[in-house]
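User: Some background: our group keeps a shared notebook of sequences we're curious about, and every so often someone picks one and asks for a predicted structure to add to the entry. Today it's my turn. The entry only has the sequence so far, pasted here. Could you supply the structure so I can complete it?
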Amino acid sequence: MAKFLIDDKLFSYLEDLSCLTFSDDEKKHLMEDLQKTMNGIAHLTDLNTDDVPLCIQPFDHVNVFREDAVRTSLDRELVLKNAPLKNEKMFVAPKTLE
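Assistant: Of course. Here's the predicted structure to add to the notebook entry:
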């Protein structure tokens, strides 16, 4: 079984990638959880798949498209009636980027 080691260096790298910062206590618990998860995934390499046929797409799904249909939309005033922020025509959302 392949063993993955979640050490401080790897965790710091993952923190940087995710733009997150954790306290020492959070870091300890997350490292333990991540280690358990990676060990569980490593067990998959122990499975004998010799007799399992190659399956590129496991489901026989086909894209089902529908014809576009013009329908009556909702009344604008009715939809905007319960909006916390709005102008005459649309919802107004708080700015998320500076």
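Suggested note for the entry: The two ends are 47 Å apart (CA to CA). The chain has a mean pLDDT of 87.
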